[in-house]
Amino acid sequence: MNGEEADNFLAVFEGDSFDEKSFAINVLQTQVVSEVIEKIDACIGNGIDTLESVLSVVQSRTDALLQGLKKIRARIGEPYARLEQRVLHLRRVQSACDFLRRSGRIFALAKKLPPQPAAGVEEAATLPEDQLGKVAQTLGDLGHQFSGLDWRGVHALEREHRRFARWREAAETRATALLVDARGIGSSS
């Protein structure tokens, strides 16, 4: 400090307006505030350092978990795809088995029908009444088997379906004729 600055500095302490208590309080307050600010800065600096180290640990653990997840996906991905293919294959096999089972049931039911309603409606009149119930039951079972089955394109099943349709028409005609006869209504039409 040069001489003029020192005089100005000391001029504060001279005179009647100088209050020692106020000056001391002001100096102490300035000192305390600067120390508090230093401690806060130190705490913040330590907190930031601690937070950065915690975040670094969390980041490294997250990276390790992601690597583990990638390994698990690699281990599971291929077996899952194979299992999915096998399930699809099993569904197809089950569908084929169901088709064969229903086809076999159709052929077994078709054997229960008398050979053929020869000329169709005229031949239906020769169907004995005691066989009409059995034929109707067999036709109902055949209708159920054909209803949920995609049989088109299978020649043996198409043939049985045509036979089934002829028998159904013949049985309906015979049943209608028996009802008309039972009621005593003459058939003039």
From TrEMBL:
InterPro entries listed in its UniProt record? Cog5, COG5_N
Q: Please list the coiled coil stretches.
A: none
Query: Which residue range or ranges hold the Conserved oligomeric Golgi complex subunit 5 N-terminal domain?
Result: 48-113
Residues spanning the signal sequence? none
Cellular component per GO? Golgi transport complex
GO annotation (BP), single = intra-Golgi vesicle-mediated transport
* Top-level lineage group: Eukaryota
Name the record gives this protein: Conserved oligomeric Golgi complex subunit 5
> Organism source for this protein?
Macrostomum lignano
